[in-house]
Amino acid sequence: MMKQILNEWREYLDEQHIRLPDHTCNITFKTGKLVDLIKDNKKVKRLRVPSWSLQTDAYLSNDPNNMASVAYCHNEPIAIVALTTDTNSRRKYGLLNFFVDSWHRGMGLADKLFLNVMDHSSHREYVIASRGGRHMLEKHGYEQVKKYCAYVDCNVYANKHYSGESQP
Fold first, then answer.
1. What is the reported pLDDT for 106?
2. Which CATH number does the domain housing residue 120 bear?
3. Does the N terminus or the C terminus of the chain have fewer Cβ atoms within 10 A?
4. Is residue 53 assigned to a domain?
């Protein structure tokens, strides 16, 4: 449904002779510690993430458990998936958030970035998410568990990649 709406919007803009961004770029990906990705490209921090949690101190913290995967087009960050420390919970769960620039949606970027981040999440026993994050976790086979979540409209999921090692 979203792809159809996006395609109709692009067709409308084309009919109105409004130029769309260049979609012929070679998309590259980087995955690693969130603070390192921000240091590497300050524009990563400015991605408009529609989530207060990525705009707070947790997003900027030096917590070595904060991981992210970022997609770039012509060296400009266009999408991010982050797994940050949930400091509001009594437990240290991973808090899943993601954002894809509106002009680059429908290309499967969120899925690819999500899989990259989760491949590096073995230190997180649980992941919490709401709305789109819930859908992403369930789509990829993560099972919801009955654990406390400090946020409204959020769920806790067991991390399939958890290695059993305690967090640093």
1. 84
2. 3.40.630.30
3. N
4. yes
B/e letters for 81-95, b = 16+ CB within 10 Å, e = fewer, are: bbbbbbeebeebbbb
Q: What phi, psi does 75 have (nearest 5°)? A: 65, 15
Confidence of residue 153 (pLDDT cuts 50, 70, 90): confident
Dist CA 140 CA 142 (whole Å) = 6
Encode pLDDT of 125-151 as tens digits.
999 988 888 999 999 999 999 988 877
Number of domains forming the structure of the chain: 1
The residue type found at 33 is K
On whether residue 17 sits in a domain, the answer given is no
Name beta bridge partners: 29. 71
Q: Which amino acid is at 155?
A: N
Match 């640093």 to its residue by tokens: 168
Q: Which long-range contacts (CB under 8 A, 24 or more apart) does 14-22 make?
A: 20/103, 21/103, 22/74
8 A C-beta contact, residue 64 and residue 83: no
Q: Classify residue 97: in a domain, yes or no.
A: yes
